[in-house]
Amino acid sequence: MRDRYSATLRGRRSGRREFAYRPVHIVLAAVILAVTVTASSGWRDPAIAAPPHRTLAVLGDSYSSGEGSPPFDTLDPRCRRSSHAWARQLSTLDSSLSVSLFAACAGATTDALNMSFKGEKPQLTQLRQMKPAPDIVTITIGGNDAGFSNVIVSCFAWKCFWDGKDKRERDVVNKELPDLLTSNYEAVKAAVPHARVLVVGYPTIFPSSQSKNTCTWLNSTERRQVSSLNSLLDRVIRRAADKADVEYVPTDRALRGHEMCTRDPWVAPVGLFSPARDLSAHPTALGQAAIAKAVDTYLTTHDAR
Q1: Exposed, middle or buried, 284 (CB in 10 Å: 0-12/13-18/19+)?
Q2: What is the distance between the alpha carbons of residues 174 and 169, in angstroms, rounded to a whole number?
Q3: Which tens digits make up the pLDDT trace of 154-168?
Q4: What is the pTM for the complete model shown?
Q5: Is domain 52-301 annotated with CATH 3.30.160.390?
């Protein structure tokens, strides 16, 4: 009897221990399963990992330096590099980006890429000297080669085109700029062969119709002429970028509804005397933000080549 009772008692105790341990086993199994599923679906998924840090080199003219949106850097005031420049605003839209070279300078033509300008080294020299090389290079160039800023001031002072025709400016854009731009884009690519080169186009700065034009100094014919020249310049820049096998970023619609001479412009008005003349027809802080958004959208939607 004692042995039978003892065996029964041992069996009951053993059953209780087995029963007591089962919930623990279940909990442990559930935890292991949860960790396994979480790791496989997220922790090790590179698609949701933090993007790698990327550096940016900014080349070009006033449409990259941020002229039109003071204050400007005091260390190199002649190039009028703005704290609101769209390139600098990119880092607020994408924390993985930071500007490591800001060589863009107001008034620069393609010559400034290869020659000293306003006391600074050629922009391509500055780019080549970067250690380490940047991940991305942006550039706006060509508008000053075409004399576009002078045309705008002339519009305000008297006529956009003194003889009423835009043939001279269109000839420069059509005949001189294509090869000049292509060769310089290729030089940028050669200077940093492992970087993405983004040629950023110019935004449209005049309203699309005369009904939206609030500037009394700009008649319908001249508005169409300067708008057409603006568009032609962008087309030539795009084709040159394609020929040089670099990327083109369109910004022509970035200021839509807020062009100069509209009721709520994001472009500085034209002035004849400094400092207003220097700011003339350049995006304000709001315009810079709009261009930054356009470039950021491009970077987000286009993978590196």
Answers
A1: buried
A2: 9
A3: 999 999 998 888 999
A4: 0.83
A5: no
